[in-house]
Amino acid sequence: MASENPTASEYIQHHLQNLTFGQHPDGSWGIAHGAAEAAEMGFWAIHLDTMGFSIALGVLFLWLFRSAAKKAHAGVPTGIQNFVELMVEFVDGSVKETFHGKSKVIAPLALTIFVWVFLMNTMDLIPVDFLPALAGLMGIEYMKVVPTTDMNATLGMAFSVFALIIYYSIKVKGVGGFIGELTLQPFGKWMIPFNLLLEGVGLIAKPISLALRLFGNLYAGELIFILIAILPFWVQWALSVPWAIFHILVIVLQAFIFMMLTIVYLSMAHEEH
Amino acid sequence: MNLNLTLFGQAISFAIFVWFCMKYVWPPVIAALEERSKKIADGLEAANRASRDLELAQEQATQALKESKAQAAEIIEQANKRANQIIDEAKEQALTEGQRLRTAAQAEIEQDVMRAKEALRSQVSLLAVTGAEKILGAIVDEKAHSELVEKLAAEL
Questions:
Q1: Which of A42, A91, A265, B116 is most buried by a 10 A CB count?
Q2: Any catalytic annotation for residue A66?
């Protein structure tokens, strides 16, 4: 905790501060104490909590699915295999519905996005003070447990998807085809600058909207949990329980939307106009 | 809200996760799913085939049963016919045999009668001579006569 008896705004700010590791202005490396120090570190810093939780959850996801995949057989499925097959079939169905090309990457990509984002979002359901308080006991000053409330995480994924969009656009249509798509429509070759502006905005909007949608939803949800946590402890349940139940929907929905939009964008990248 | 290296860290870990998923998670699960759906399809087809086979076999069995029934009836009829025939034959044979036996017996009887007649004929003269002798030789008395006649008759 930043101080013994934090005010409401201090409490909120404390909860919204990542555990940032970077170079202090004086040249030494270390963990930022407070938002101002973290901001001074600039771009060359890293959020240890975001990285740690997201990687741990990603490893959890892969370990779980890998252990089921190793034992996968065509007989009657049981236990974890059932669940994994359900997820795989669900994602496979969504991909096949939307994406009609042939690609080995898109379906596993969609599965990874769905499950990983879902797990990261689910961290939101853990009471907001629980893990930070534990970390505080161990001497870790700041901790944000929901990686998807860190814009770096959502933007990181969105830019990866963006890179794939560009890669597939060029792979399928060629450099000329891709540039043509950006410049020669919707108004023909006499309006190239205008077309480029329109299509460029459309293209850039894809990753940005993808990242901001997920970030915004989860950040808002987290913020409301934090606000509820400010209330006296004996009324918290009356608000936090309904919000958490509603949030279950948001968590799954946002993971699903991120996955679906990725599939849609990539299938658009595969389509010739 | 600072953008920093976490962005790249996330992108890199995302890429690694996707790669791992693509390489080690997706193919085995999908392979198992496809194999299972193939198995199920095969099973359904086999079940269809089996029920068709069963139907066919039942039909065949009914057919065979009907045929054998008809055959059995035919055999029984033939057997009855044959039995009747045998009985008729036996009757006829018995009749002819009886006829033959009777004829033979009759012939034998006739022969015997003839023989007896012959023997009688040969003895009658002797008797007559003996009788006459006795009649002539003895005193004629009624009692003696009747005795004599009775004796004669007994000698016949």
A1: A91
A2: no
- Rounded to whole angstroms, the Cα distance separating A195 from A200 reads 8
**Helix or strand or coil: residue A20?**
strand
Helix (H, G, I), strand (E, B), or coil: what is residue A88? helix
Range of the domain at A259: 8-270
Calculate how close chain A gets to B22, using CA atoms only, in Å.
5
CB distance from A51 to chain B under 8 Å? yes
Q: Is A115 among the domain residues?
A: yes
- Is residue A2 one of the residues assigned to a domain? no
Tokens matching residue B107: 């012939």
Query: How many structural domains is chain A composed of?
Result: 1
Two structure tokens written together for A93: 């169905």
Amino acid identity of residue A202, one-letter, is G
pLDDT of residue A28: 81
B26 at the A interface (CB within 8 A)? yes
Nearest chain B Cα to A41, which residue?
Answer: B4
| Catalytic site residue from A94, A169, A195, A217 | A217
Domain residue spans in chain B? 39-155
Query: Residue B26 and residue B21: Cα distance in Å, rounded?
Result: 6
Q: How far is B48 from chain A (nearest CA, A)?
A: 21
Q: How confident is the model at residue A259 (pLDDT cuts 50, 70, 90)?
A: very high
Q: Does A150 touch chain B (CB under 8 A)?
A: yes
Pick from A38, A56, A247, A30: which is nearest to A145 by CA?
A56
Distance between alpha carbon B75 and the CA centroid of its chain, in Å? 8
| Domain contains A124 | yes
Amino acid symbol at B18? V
pLDDT in tens, A30-55: 888 878 888 878 888 888 889 999 99
